[in-house]
């Protein structure tokens, strides 16, 4: 197999795309008009089966916004610093900010009668344009003919990517610990997921996360390693704030993985729902108030967000999945895909046949709030920077609780300080020879007894058997807690449960 | 084949459901807790990967409503009657009505932090309850164990129904003229649509629409009529305001069709997106102002809405598809399915794996507006009655334009006065022996030249060949026009194009 720089044109659609996807490319029949035919300059419509906007009961919508996360309930348990010291550039943090969405002639606004009407499966034009400006600013693809298409959230984006690439019996590479709902999407189209080992050993001296050597060896020896399985069509990867591990691939790692994709000619599905939520390295929570924690947007882009696989993709083999769920609100069910135009065209055909368009209500809220309140791409990034500080603070609260614990000091626990996203993976250090999964099953009950919900690593595997030796961890998240106290209390319950378990000789 | 009154329990899920659907039924593994285990009474969550509502930029949403369709732009070209005479029970038609959606403890409201959060694939509980109360009031099913599930519009509902029932090679019966996007959903799962003849002959003395005798004969002689094709698993039908014909099946017809479904053991997918939009029989548009046109809700339900197939369904074989698109707004992408609980469970599994939940933003708007502005089920029906009057008026404007035309008076046209929905089918009366489809292709250009968009019947067929003889019609809709003048102008262009075409000897 050799490198192929015209991947998309030669392969992704015509060869790599699923038969299902290729079957969808519709051909519009053209007919010869009779001699002398001229179309009317201003035709009237008796054909489109859609209600006039006058039939809708809604006249307008006012969206009332906050200036920063937790504006109404922020609790700072350690100092009494005012919210103003968090956000020194805000004149008045209590001011109400309302974006009114109505019938209006303003090309930047999504007009309410447009958003409540049947919409394009590609998405509302203004929001599409925003996603393109945003990608252009933060993750400019290395290939020219890229495009975006709106989805009903990252879940919908992943379904579309699976549907685009996989027919029954096709193989897709997946990080051994992953966002497991995607495995159901793979199964739904009959695909076969093959796990790729993650390096979780801090003492290895190698980058944590996807094990590039393992991947390289597997691909080089595919026929002997996976006899009878077809060569993989794609790699599914969560490169930043990996779920459930919390690691972020360096750009060097991405380049190595991409080189393998070129060499072995497979597509990369980049599920990057956490990449903008970069997190500071751990610092004691009290230090949150230093003003230099607030990054400038240019610095944020240049030095904190790891560039997407798109930015090194010369042949259009990357399909990037984004979402507004983590940055705006999950209930919107809104996200987008960035990929080569020929890929987005096939995805639009799929949307046209199966998933239809995303909610117009959600699109109008996101687009109008970003355009009119945040002020476009840079304002949107400033909002994300506010989230970043709040999430970093929460992460540090949880880590601090662990680092200060007896369980940690006694060596029962090891932690990966996440560089992005919402998850901390905490490893239970069991001696060699101990039946780890049997013991962790008991520990699960200990957590239930101590009153803390956690995700056992083994439940996030592609193949339990394959990953058993590396499944001695729990995924903890600092995202859903109501306030700081809940995080510290939950963290406390976690470490106490672990300590109790070890003190009782790994018995319940 | 014999009647089977335990269709759902014995067949729909275990036998009739697609292999794909059956594969999705998930079994939760249960494990034995260790001795002495007790769960904590108030556990804290470090497991759910979802942001706290405090991370959302939205504090509250005000939805500003109108009292009746076209409140701001209603034009009455014939008389100068005020809008108050339309809606005599409204005290002040210009009053602003705002429903505020915020964080609030009120079981009827959808709280904004709930709606913007990840939601249940079944739908937000309050909206689910409304759909159940609504169905109970208007179309109470004849079987006990029914349930509803929220969808992202009727399109999503139809995809789910196709996915539920059909594997590759399975047959589904479809009215020969139909909502053609559903054919793509059938194709997507590999199903085979078989057209059922519609009676479009006004002189036949038989009910217009689905030809029950044809259906009965076809089923009785399936093996000889359709050699090699498996027996149909389902019938897809648009029983009210049929798209594109405009007819509504009487309850007697529905009973006959249902009896065939029992006899031959197939499911019925009832796509009823127009059933509430009943239309008065034609009357000259001027007469719109008679106050007795405004029905009481009880009268509306008892005498105007034709009861759903659900109301005669004793064995749970009907899957009813509803939408808020035609009654509220299409951009919401919101609807629901009514079916047996075992069916809705399988549909929830599908949503969980593939389509995810509907937009929370759309659900919060619909539920809160219906609960707080319309006042629940009966208020919602009152809103629909306002739509009914407006649509009836529009329909009559279009029909009047046709009835008064030279083309109609000269016998070039025949019209079906629709009893529900948004569509008028207008037949072009061509002499026997004329190559109808060749002539209609020319007429299509005539319409483009006169400046009126219409849908040729032939483009809405399951099988062009099968329906060629009955495809001499156009589907016209009075729904999208901006105002009354646009409808009359568009209608005028339509009849003038037809007249011109006939006057020129059926040439362009």
UniProtKB/TrEMBL annotation, chains A, B:
- Aminotransferase class I/classII large domain: residues covered: 106-492
User: What's the cofactor?
Assistant: pyridoxal 5'-phosphate
A Gene Ontology BP annotation from the UniProt entry: lysine biosynthetic process via aminoadipic acid
Q: Cell division among the record's keywords?
A: no
GO molecular-function term, one example from the UniProt record: 2-aminoadipate transaminase activity
Disordered: where is this region?
A: 1-44
InterPro entries in the cross-refs = Aminotransferase_I/II_large, Class-I_PLP-dep_aminotransf, PyrdxlP-dep_Trfase, PyrdxlP-dep_Trfase_major
Q: Which Pfam families match?
A: Aminotran_1_2
Keywords from the UniProt entry = Aminotransferase, Pyridoxal phosphate, Transferase
Family (UniProt): Belongs to the class-I pyridoxal-phosphate-dependent aminotransferase family.
Q: Which PANTHER family match?
A: AMINOTRANSFERASE, AROMATIC AMINO ACID AMINOTRANSFERASE 2
The name this protein carries in UniProt is Aromatic amino acid aminotransferase 2
